[in-house]
Design goal:
67 residues, two-stranded antiparallel ribbon, 3 helices, 49% helix
């Protein structure tokens, strides 16, 4: 799993949320909702959602269970 998400982030050329272009210099992160790479502006929007804390906790729990 570790190598999969690293490759997903490193190789992404578009934000899966807004479809904006991502250059190799652009910072990106995986969404807690669908584990797809997103740009930082989309991450800020994601963090503003009312269910973000629950989704983040669930994602962390699932990752801990896998490892």
């Amino acid at each position: 799993m570790d190598a999969i998400w690293k490759k997903s982030i490193a190789c992404s050329t578009r934000c899966s949320r807004c479809d904006g272009a991502l250059s190799k210099e652009d910072k990106r992160i995986l969404s807690v909702y669908d584990h797809e790479p997103i740009c930082l502006p989309c991450k800020k929007e994601e963090e503003a959602r009312p269910d973000y804390e629950t989704a983040a906790r669930n994602m962390i729990s699932a990752c801990m269970a896998e490892t």
